[in-house]
Amino acid sequence: MEQPVLNVSKLETHFFTDDGEIPAVDSVDFHINKGEVLGIVGESGSGKSVTSLSIMQLIQAPGKVVGGEITYKGENLLTKSEKEMRKIRGNEIGMIFQEPMTSLNPVFRIGNQLIEGIRIHKKWSKKKSWEHAISILKLVGLPRAEELMNEYPHQLSGGMRQRVMIAMAMACDPEVLIADEPTTALDVTIQAQILELMKKLNRETNTSIILITHDLGVVAEICDRIVVMYSGKIVEQGKTSDIFQQPKHPYTIGLIESVPDVRVRKDRLYSIPGNVPKPGSIQKGCHFAPRCSFAFDKCFEEDPVLLETGSNQQARCWLHEDEKKAAVLERVNS
Amino acid sequence: MQEALLEVKQLKKHFPIEGGVLKQQVGTVKAVDGVTFTLHKGETFGLVGESGCGKSTTGRMLMRLLEPSEGEVLFNGREMTSLSKNEMRHLRKDIQMVFQDPFASLNPRHTVEKIIEEPLIVHNLGNKAERKKRVKELLEIVGLSSYHAKRYPHQFSGGQRQRIGIARALAVNPKLIIADEPVSALDVSIQAQVLNLLEDLQKELGLTYLFIAHDLGVVRHISDRVGVMYLGRIVEMADSEKLYLDSKHPYTQALLSAVPVPDPEYGKDRIILTGDVPSPSNPPSGCPFHTRCPKAMDVCSSVVPEFREVEPGHYTACHLYEEDHV
Prior knowledge:
By secondary structure, chain A is of the alpha/beta class.
């Protein structure tokens, strides 16, 4: 069995607010292998971004990682000091954020921002770092890399800025790249360019990528494996092809059905009734039960556990405890 | 022949760029540069394009929230661009708008009742009791409950707020609703709810929609006809099915192929466009798309292609389909 590069187990990140303790990430387990692209999918408030920030230990008060383990290269990141973490961030684990506008410092030139990380982590001379930065800009497909180094972020378009962000995250050859909604702010034609670039980087440098997104299309496009989150918990995980062909959790099924497809027009869109619950508002039972059309008594009483539903596929749903009930789901699904 | 509700002819909006100490005009941004289309009664016309293509500017000009620089807009055969402010206000009873951001488009200090009642007051419709009754009715039409009337916007989720925005637009019984990215701020499961609501309302109330969006899947789902915009112009226009199955313009083809499909098994030949959308303050000569077009020819950089009918009901502006080049 392949050794995972990064393993997250029983991760708990809670927010301590005036309304009490809110479990934004609730006992989340997943791993990512070398060279793999893992997608974390969910709607707003599902805890997908908090999960990624927890890995990087960038959670700010009132949030706090209160439990679990994040193992990277055999060491638990949660026991590391801030100083040790700083050596890992950007060097071993890189991160790309959603807003290319706000993630670059507007008053520094691209070059200065790019070499900062390289100089700190690699301890190279300014000249060597500068040359390395230019080669990275070329790698991410930016034209006139030398000139760009002396330009300011406002002089670039959104797509170019996102490429610079990727270059910055890739500058120190990280083992793992976490991309939090990297294409959400971009137009489709630019999104296609960025996704193509990420695929290329994954292939050529064998970097593992954790892609966090709400867009099922993007996930289908580039991920090997998927983790679906809802209300702070993983509700389903498995191989991309399995999840799209045979989704096992009613939420995943609903999510896939409610996307308007650009290839065929559906007569009527399937829609999941109700709204995403506020984190912490559901005390008992499955968090999806109030919106679920398959829910039965047990769902409102007891929170389901992740059940094996196939080879390497798990769903947090009581339907899969009983073959008959699972068969109903199967029928509706087909 | 279907009856036209709204006719837009050669609509343009040029914004001046001012520079220097004396605020002299140093250039123009051609945000919308000659847009022509017709909306038939009871249909949904989708206007789709990337950011900066002028689709929202077009929508705002139809409401005269922005004054057009040139061109004509006929609503029910009546010229709109020359109407006075007062006449326009009366006309807006028939044309209402639903905005993108359900967080910014509702006044946080007003109750839902006050928000939905406001257009009724502006247009002098009904007395106080009738208006209250109408608000409750509207809330139920859009899938909320009448007890929500006393609440404030912050007490609602994004999807519910968008429903309030739709109720406000419906209050005065409009004929046309201009919806500018009404679902782009919503989560997928909520987006489907709002799209279904819009479809149901259209059937029940016989509404006509101008649906402005960047999401091609959403536009295909809701529209009868679609216009694709690029740099201030419509480059292709056809029935929705036709446009998606047999697109003519290379830009439409690239745009459609760029959409990620939620199916990992779906193999496709993706056309990846290079570069970015050029600035509308300095658009390329000839066809505005020739700088990124994979099929560009010599003529494209010098001559602006005419927007012409290439098949019945299917219009495109591309030299590939002009007789001399076929």
